[in-house]
Amino acid sequence: MRLLLDEMYPRRLAEQLRAAGHDVVAVVELPDLVGREDVEVARSAQETGRIVVTENVRDYAPLDLDAHAGLLLVNGRRWSRAPSGLPRLLAALQAWLDARAGGDEARRGVVEWL
Question: Ranges for the DUF5615 domain (predicted)?
C-alpha cells in the first residue's frame, strides 16, 4: 500500500514510515501540493496510486470514489499528531500497513478508519 499523508501531518512521520520500509510520502514534502485544495490532493493521490491519510473527513468523505485511490480517515482525538502523540500514530499506521502488506490492490477506492 502506498500512502499520501495529508498536509496536517509532519514530514517526520512519513520519514519514519519509510525507514520502516513503507511507501509513504507527505504533502509537506511535495511543493506542488502544499496549500492546494483537497480535491487536487485527492486527484494527485489517485494518479500516483496513493491512499490519502487525513483527519479532514468533512472535505474528503464526500468526494467521488473515482477522485481518489482510497482514504484512510484518522480520528485526531484518538490519534494525536502532537509531538507527544506521534509515536502512537506511527505505530497505528505501521500496524495498518503491515496488516495489508502484499495485499490485494483491488481495495483501491475504499474508505477506512484507522
Answer: 1-78
Contacts of range 36-43, beta carbons closer than 8 Å, 24 or more positions apart: 38/63, 39/63, 39/67, 41/4, 41/6, 41/7, 42/67, 42/68, 43/67, 43/68
Domain spans of the chain, in order of start: 3-113
pLDDT category at 107 given cuts 50, 70, 90 is low
Note the pTM of the prediction, 2 decimals.
Answer: 0.91
